[in-house]
Amino acid sequence: MKKWVKVTGAGVLSVTLLLGGCGSQSEDKAEANVKTEKTLQPGNQIKLQGAVNVRDLGGYKTTDGLTIKPHKLIRSAELEALSDSDKKKLINTYKLSHIVDFRTNTEVKTKPDPELKGVKYTHDSVMKDNGASTSTQDLTASLAKMDNPETFLINANKSFVTDDTSIQAYKDFFNVLLENKDGSVLWHCTAGKDRAGFGTALVLSALGVDKNTVIEDYMLSNKYRAAENEKAIQAVAAKTNNKKVIEGMTAVMEVRESYINAAFDEINTKYGSMDHFLEQKLDLTESKKEQLKKIYLY
User: Fold this and answer.
1) Helix boundaries (H) for the chain
2) Total Cβ atoms within 10 A of residue 6
3) Residue 265 C-alpha from the chain's centroid
4) Global confidence as pTM
5) What domains does the chain contain, in order, with CATH numbers?
6) What averages of pLDDT result for each successive group of 10 residues across the chain (298 residues)?
7) Which among 12, 22, 56, 59 would be 20 to 30 A from 184, CA to CA?
């Protein structure tokens, strides 16, 4: 049964343990660790026919030497076009148990997630819904009015830290992660780079992954969205020769370190540290953080 939780929000621009052999227990463990290292490739995408920028966070190391378990934490772009084989892969291979949808009501209505048997669904909008469209025509018009689209994304990332809707959404997101005992949780927005990107930064930070690695993961959206980004930019270029609009579309479709760093800087300015932000605004106390680590690390 699917669990539907409606929260309003928006945005134009969203071990296997290998045992055996006759060696000692420590030798077996060492061998298993080596094989696990080769198996886990953090940052690699899950290849699906109907969705892009889908990634298993398994394999990322924390500063205290632990590792994020595979097939537990998945980030993604929109899922509306999932094929039957995609659905089977997510359910059978990745043991998907819960989807958290960061999109607005308008986005969800336009491209609803498919129902997956046995998978819970939570609509947890990170931004207020202004009813905006992401059509090429509307985006072109919006970009033409913007002085600096890069500033738009910088301000959007700051709002993830300060806006009450965003704070509540990410707080609810962590509650889903804390309640998950079996299987994997997948979270997504439209492009899987901004709302989902910041949500991923919060999760990795809460688990103890260092900031440089968090940013590296964030920046991988440019790699895994390259083809889609180029299509979007060319679609705008076909409608206008306005250099400002085309450059603006590029800024909107990409992720840049200035975007995520704007959120980090806002956190440091207002709360002193990521840990303080997680506890004070998202209610992720030390005990909850330890619980999170027990679920998702080994």
Assistant:
1) 25-39, 84-88, 105-110, 136-145, 149-162, 164-179, 195-207, 211-224, 226-237, 243-253, 257-271, 274-280, 286-296
2) 11
3) 20
4) 0.85
5) 44-296 (3.90.190.10)
6) 38 31 40 45 89 97 96 98 98 97 96 96 94 63 80 95 98 98 96 98 98 97 96 91 90 96 98 98 97 98
7) 12
